[in-house]
Design a protein that fits this description.
The protein is an alpha/beta fold. The chain has helices at about 15-30, 30-35, 65-75, 110-115; strands at about 5, 40-50, 50-55, 85-95, 100-105, 120-125, 130-135.
């Protein structure tokens, strides 16, 4: 059996309810993740006032952050989304010795631009140590370059 590393629960930046929901969504993707052979897998989960709203994963064209923003825009056509109360948590899952761990998943420069154009209030991401960092989207800066663009992108 594959389990999610419990290191994620030692965190002051994200409330326990949101962590448990994040854990449940990540667990749901475990089998799909294993079928990919342990390739890093990104997941973005949106919360409004600590309540789950939606989630998205990366695909060959878009990052998880872009996909979750797309879902939020769609949901807004059917529900009252309070963008100024939204928080997005982004994680990258990595398979190590039959355990899935959260590793560095700071949004890239392109996703940073998308997030700043949205009305999302806060962004959190997993770090290389398995903990989380959180900040207001308006204060968020990134120098992360997606693997897809590394050869052609210069800061």
């Amino acid at each position: 059996n594959t389990i999610i590393s419990y290191d994620i629960f030692q965190n002051d930046n994200i409330d326990n309810k949101s962590l448990h929901i994040l854990f449940a969504v990540a667990t749901h993707y475990t089998e799909e993740f294993r079928k990919k052979g342990g390739i890093p897998y990104h997941l973005a989960v949106a919360f409004e006032n600590h309540k789950y709203v939606c989630h998205a994963t990366n695909d060959p064209v878009h990052h998880a952050e872009a996909n979750v923003l797309k879902k939020l825009n769609y949901l807004e056509t059917k529900h009252d989304i309070k963008w100024n109360k939204l928080k997005i948590i982004v994680v990258r899952m990595k398979l190590e010795e039959n355990t899935i761990k959260f590793v560095l998943s700071k949004p890239c420069v392109n996703c940073c631009k998308l997030l700043k154009c949205s009305r999302v209030k806060n962004i959190s991401w997993s770090t290389s140590s398995g903990s989380f960092k959180t900040c207001r989207v308006c204060d968020f800066e990134s120098t992360q370059v997606s693997r897809k663009f590394r050869d052609s992108f210069h800061l």
